[in-house]
From TrEMBL:
InterPro entries: ACP-like_sf, AMP-bd_C_sf, AMP-binding_CS, AMP-dep_synth/lig_dom, FAR_NAD-bd, NAD(P)-bd_dom_sf, PKS_PP-bd, PP-bd_ACP. This is Carrier domain-containing protein. It holds the Pfam family PP-binding. CDD domains: A_NRPS, SDR_e1. The keyword Phosphoprotein applies. Belongs to the NRP synthetase family. Keywords: Phosphopantetheine, Phosphoprotein.
């Protein structure tokens, strides 16, 4: 029998005074000595005990040392998954070499290239692969015939510092050889807190041996006294077979990639009930799958979410998932293992703050030295990093740049955001593909989803996203998924949806995105062949829809809605331009928004073709429609059921009902409310399917604007799923009555904003929504309403009507003539504010607030990346030019000023607050001299910009023409609105010349007792300097 630990011959000599560091061999031998007859491996009717495995590995090791001439070169393993492969790994480690698992599916030329790069000239093969790589020396491994030899001290080679070399293509496509240090594998498998595998547990071995996660199953078991149970690949890929295998083989521990876990969970969510530990990793975790497991009849004792690239020895972060995290839809990847350090940094390698997104860099045990034979790629990914900027110790470390984006909370938990190379730009908006996939999986309509970016080759076609979704049932439609998706994340890019029965998987169990892209492109191209045949108007229009949407012909029905099919404002712009060019007409964007179905647009164009321009649906009575809608709230009266709340801040009240908390101002206002000790509870009306999804939307919004939820008392936050665009806010009568009686005050900050959509598209949310909120405020008992309107409610009254000054209490009604030349959003706010004023006339306690152009936070510089000003500044800085727009005053204010002023005014002492009820306040800079015009704003940007070449002013029409050629520009979707002439030869933006001055007398009086809020508004230059970083962040990576 081969010598075991405790026999003199097997002892490893160490220098006097040098601490003994256990290696893979000695740790495995400890298990052999402790329990020699325990089963180590079980596969296909065969089994080896620990002592048998040790003996055979020792024998094979002796043969390796005899035959393999190069004493330190790594050794390839061309053996299928099973006992022979595991035996080969152990024998190579015994021989003091590094294991190189090779993919038997690759060609001999590919395998030879890999071995040559590593200077490896010897392989271990099984009988089925013994004929391959004929010019490479090899030894056949067969556990049923491996002889027994007595090992001696001379046969025990010094252990290698590198135990394994794996080849990973990463995102580059070309294999990279990653040498893994043995210390990293030991650190992973012997982590005391994770305690992956306990002695005697049966561990499923499902991972391909050419991927590093297999080491958890193999060495995690062997170093801890477990039993490896090899799962046939056909079983691992069949949910029913895998479920039965888990039961019949009494597995305790199982590891599955995210994709395989999703497939199995969809079919049998209770398949893992008998497991002690379920480990998943390799891709972003699917919260819906984990929820299904927890909701089934039985769940494993624990579910571990592991994260780590091959370059960090399998996993470097881990987390035991809770049911609560799964229900919330926010599952972290956890904290680092012992002896591992992680840092989140920006592009300049400066550490980011808590809650901010940064690239993960890793140092410590397990980090590879680099890529073998790839010095250039090594230098770009493995760097020497000096830790500083708030870290406790100044030190230099060897680190690996993962390319993964994460954020970290105050507890040190990491949350995966996405890949840097999966962070794509669509219509100028930076998008994380993994985030969209996560939201789709939360809908409970799909079992799994993968999103890819399609970049058309044709000139003038911009990139778009396609979401491949596996529906949970045959009744699920793309339109249903879209509706749910938009309800959860209305500000995210909307992908095009493609329903499929299954997603193709690569050999490593991950989704094959390349195959999906090829499949989609081929389907689209083949379906468009001959798409214009027939020559009719309907056929031509259908072709344009298919071409702009980029969908196969069979996916389009006459009643399909353009937006529901994945259309967005950029595509609207493209479709309008192509319709106008193809049919020789001048169609407005607003017309298209009113005729969004293929059938409706075909009928419109047919009418235009027959009747000419008079066939356009011009609403001669649109002003009458606004006036008519202005009376929708005339039935409102103060409630007679209970007392009027005069001071909502007193201890017996202090219960806030808030809308708009998922918006930019609303998020900051919610955070401010939760930081006020006197506020008992805040109930937020959120468009969501249930409270859990609504809370998730709020949490994501807070994180997006760096308002870390861990700093806020979220126990005082209640999420109310509903919509102010619906009667009774979308609540049942019992809920509606409860909150109407419960609330002390109503803050209505929510609104729909779309610069291309018509008044009718905004009417439900902005007009009816205001009526519904006022009905709520007067139901059960009368509550004060603090309503945010906009200075745009007056329209371009300065240019159109010659208005020079607008007192705060001047009602918009007298400026209705100017609204004809503004957007549907401004028109809806005109009507909504008119309704609020009429409510004031009946005695309802309403205060109206009109914010100016809200910029970022004056302290943190965090901006709203989706608003017009952010996109304008970013676009012009990248273009190097800005439009010359004379005499256009801009009332820029920081978001924290708006929030502080709103909260101070609304929560002042009863007598003070009462002075403002029934009045309006313009939330603009208290000093009128601080307002600057457009040209001055760009001059200020030129002064503070880091770019050497300043932006130059060019005529407006020339600027729009340049913008229309920049398909990926963040402003490109607004080209139709920016180009459309509405008054003579002037566009909507140009008619805002000669803007009136907005009064601020009420505001100044209200803030007289709060000089710190006024000081917080600061100078424009200071505010621009704070926000500059956010605006630059919207630009393409330089």
């Amino acid at each position: 029998m081969a010598c075991l630990p405790g026999n003199k011959a097997s002892l490893i000599k160490t220098e006097p005074g040098v601490a003994y560091e256990p290696d893979l061999r000695s740790l495995f031998e400890d298990q052999v000595r402790t329990n020699p007859t325990a089963t180590a491996i079980k596969s296909n009717g065969h089994a080896l005990s620990y002592i048998e495995l040790h003996t055979k590995a020792s024998s094979l090791s002796c043969q390796i040392q005899t035959l393999a001439l190069r004493g330190s070169a790594p050794i390839g393993i061309l053996i299928l998954r099973g006992i022979n492969h595991i035996l080969a790994q152990l024998a190579i480690v015994y021989a003091g070499r590094a294991c190189v698992p090779l993919d038997t599916k690759l060609s001999d030329d590919s395998l030879k290239s890999m071995l040559d790069n590593l200077h490896a000239s010897f392989i271990l093969a099984d009988q089925g692969n013994a004929h391959r790589l004929g010019d490479v020396a090899h030894l056949v491994v067969d556990h049923t015939h491996t002889g027994h030899v007595e090992s001696s001290s001379s046969s025990l080679a010094p252990t290698s510092s590198c135990s394994h070399i794996f080849h990973t293509s990463g995102t580059s496509g070309r294999p990279k050889a990653v040498p893994l240090p043995a210390t990293g594998l030991i650190n992973l498998c012997r982590e005391p807190d994770a305690n992956w595998i306990k002695r005697g547990q049966r561990v499923g071995h499902a991972a391909s041996v050419v991927f590093d996660i297999s080491l958890v199953e193999i060495w995690g078991s062997l170093l801890n006294g477990g039993t490896i149970v090899v799962i046939p690949m056909e079983t691992a890929l069949d949910p029913l077979e895998l479920s039965n295998f888990i039961q019949t083989q009494r597995l305790d521990v199982l590891q599955l990639t995210t994709s395989l876990l999703d497939v199995t969970t969809y079919a049998f969510p209770g398949a893992f009930a008998t497991l002690d530990t379920l480990i998943t990793g390799g891709e972003a975790i699917n919260c819906q799958s984990i929820r299904s497991i927890f909701s089934s009849h039985g769940a494993p004792r624990r579910i571990i979410n592991g994260y780590g690239p091959t370059e960090c020895s399998v996993y470097c972060l881990w987390h035991c998932v809770s049911r609560r995290e799964a229900n919330q839809g926010l599952i972290p990847v956890g904290k680092p293992f012992r002896n591992v350090e992680t840092f989140l940094v920006d592009e300049a390698l400066i550490p980011v703050g808590v809650g901010e997104v940064g690239e993960l860099v890793v140092s410590g045990a397990g980090v590879a030295s680099g890529y073998s034979g790839e010095s250039k790629r090594t230098d770009s990914s493995f760097i020497t990093y000096t830790c500083c900027n708030g870290f406790p110790k100044m030190a230099t470390r060897h680190v690996y740049r993962t390319g993964d984006l994460m954020r970290k909370d105050e507890c040190g938990l990491h949350y995966y955001v996405g890949r840097k190379d999966n962070q794509v730009k669509i219509s100028g908006q930076r998008v994380e593909l993994e985030m969209i996939e996560s939201i789709l999986q939360e809908t409970d309509l799909v079992s799994t989803a993968t999103v890819i970016k399609i970049t058309p080759q044709e000139l003038g076609r911009s990139a778009f996203l396609v979401a491949f979704c596996v529906p949970k049932s045959s009744s699920v439609t793309a339109a249903a998924i879209l509706e749910d998706y938009v309800g959860r994340s209305p500000r995210l890019v909307v992908p095009r949806f493609k329903l499929t029965e299954a997603l193709p998987l690569r050999a490593n169990g991950k989704v094959d995105r390349g195959q999906l892209q090829r499949q989609y492109t081929q389907e689209t191209e083949s379906s468009h062949v001959g798409g214009r045949q027939g020559g009719s108007l309907a056929a031509e229009l259908r072709y344009l829809w298919l071409d702009v949407l980029g969908i196969p012909d069979q996916d389009l029905q006459p009643t399909d809605d353009f937006i529901a099919m994945g259309g967005n404002s950029l595509m609207v712009a493209s479709l309008i331009a192509r319709i106008n060019h193809s049919f020789g007409i001048s169609l407005r964007a607003s017309t298209l928004y009113d005729k969004m179905t293929l059938q409706g647009l075909t009928q419109l164009l047919t009418t235009l073709h027959r009747d000419g321009p008079r066939g356009l649906p011009v609403d001669a009575n649109e002003e009458n429609a606004w006036l008519r809608d202005s009376h929708l709230g005339d039935h409102l009266q103060p409630s007679r059921e209970g007392p009027v709340v005069t001071d909502w801040t007193i201890p017996s009240e202090a219960k806030v009902f808030l809308t708009g908390a998922t918006g930019f101002v609303g998020a900051f206002f919610l955070a401010a409310l939760l930081q006020k000790p006197f506020v008992k509870q805040v109930s937020c009306l959120v468009r969501a399917h249930d409270a859990a999804h609504g809370r998730l939307r709020l949490q994501k919004t807070l994180l997006r604007y760096h308002l870390c939820p861990s700093n806020l008392d979220l126990d005082r936050l209640t999420v109310v799923p509903g919509s102010f665009g619906e009667a009774q806010l979308g609540l049942d009568t019992q809920q509606y009555d409860h909150y109407a009686e419960w609330a002390s005050v109503v803050f209505h900050l929510g609104a729909k904003v779309n610069y291309l959509a018509t008044y009718s598209a905004h009417r439900k949310d902005n007009v009816l929504g205001t009526v519904h909120m006022l009905e709520f405020a007067t139901h059960k008992r009368t509550k004060p309403v603090h309503y945010t309107s906009t200075i745009a409610a007056y329209g371009p009254t300065g240019h159109v009507l010659g208005t020079k000054f607008l007192p705060e209490d001047e009602r918009p009604a007298s400026h209705i003539a100017s609204l004809h030349y503004d957007t549907g959003y401004a028109q809806s706010q005109f009507v909504a504010e008119t309704i609020a004023w009429r409510a004031i006339d009946t005695g309802i306690p309403v205060t109206i607030y009109r914010p100016g152009f809200v910029l970022g936070n004056s302290r943190s510089g965090v901006c709203n990346p989706d608003d017009f000003i952010s996109r304008l500044f970013a676009s012009c800085m990248e273009m190097g030019a800005y439009p010359i727009l004379p005499r256009q005053r801009k009332e820029f204010v920081p978001v924290d000023f708006v929030v502080d002023a709103l909260l101070h005014i609304s929560s002042s002492a009863c007598t003070s607050a009462g002075q403002h009820l029934g009045h309006a306040l313009n939330l603009v800079h208290p000093d009128p001299a601080s307002a600057i015009d457009v040209c001055a704003a760009f001059a200020l940007l030129n002064r503070i910009s880091p770019y050497r070449d300043p932006m130059r002013g060019i005529p407006y029409t020339e600027w729009v023409r340049s913008l229309s050629l920049r398909l990926e520009d963040p402003l490109y979707p607004l080209v139709p609105m920016l180009r459309e002439k509405v008054l003579g030869d002037r566009t909507r933006w140009e008619v805002y010349e000669d803007m009136a001055e907005y009064g601020r007398g009420n505001l100044q009086r209200a803030l007289r007792a709060a000089p710190e809020i006024v000081r917080g508004c600061g100078s424009m230059e200071r505010l621009f300097e704070r926000c500059l970083g956010s605006w630059l962040g919207l630009l393409n990576d330089k």
